Amino acid sequence: MLSDREAISLQMQSTLDEATDPWGVKVERVEVKDVRLPVQLQRAMAAEAEAAREARAKVIAAEGEQKASRALKE
């Protein structure tokens, strides 16, 4: 929802147009401005980001150990 607000706004506009056209009402603009995520979803997103950072750190550490091992071998 956060990354696709424009498409959601267009879809909402289309749905509103279908519902209001029979009454002669035209909705000129629809915008999704503020999205409030549930606390549980915020925590899940934070945990996912933390896991991704930890995974990158492990890869970097492993690459460093591999380079150090090669350097000692030489």
TrEMBL record:
PROSITE patterns: BAND_7. Transmembrane segments: none annotated. The keyword Membrane applies. It comes from the Eukaryota. It is found in: Membrane. Pfam families: Band_7 (PF01145). Residues 2-65 form the Band domain. Gene3D superfamilies: 6.10.250.2090, Band 7 domain. InterPro entries: Band-7_stomatin-like, Band_7, Band_7/SPFH_dom_sf, Band_7/stomatin-like_CS, Stomatin_HflK_fam. Keywords: Membrane. GO terms for cellular component: plasma membrane. PANTHER family: AT06885P-RELATED (PTHR10264:SF19), BAND 7 PROTEIN-RELATED (PTHR10264). Belongs to the band 7/mec-2 family. This is Band 7 domain-containing protein. It comes from Plectus sambesii.
